[in-house]
Fold:
Amino acid sequence: MAREMTQLKTAEPQSLAQAEERPRAAPPVDIFENEEELLLHADMPGVTSEALEISFDRGQLTISARREDTESKNPLRTEFQAADYYRRFAVPPGVDAENIRAELKNGVLQLHLPKSAALKPRQIPIRGA
Structure:
């Protein structure tokens, strides 16, 4: 199932002024699968939960976030600049959309996409004669 989850190409319009002001980046993502769920990890350093938006609509999972510049106006060195994160995925059928949950901790977003009961492995009982 994890192999079926793929990034979609998007052509989101944006104004010229917006394009010049803020770079847009696709956060690096790792996707894992176990018996219970698909687990997506996205690296999003400098993003707060208030600046993060996650949506699921018609089989499409969209992650967008806004990272602001460092708070200090006179930093000694900066390697992180303001940027907009954006990533969209096609979610395979069988994910329990009602129970998707997200956690943001130490710059890593964890999305838990639980499998529906129909996709979970189960033991088949054997009846004796």
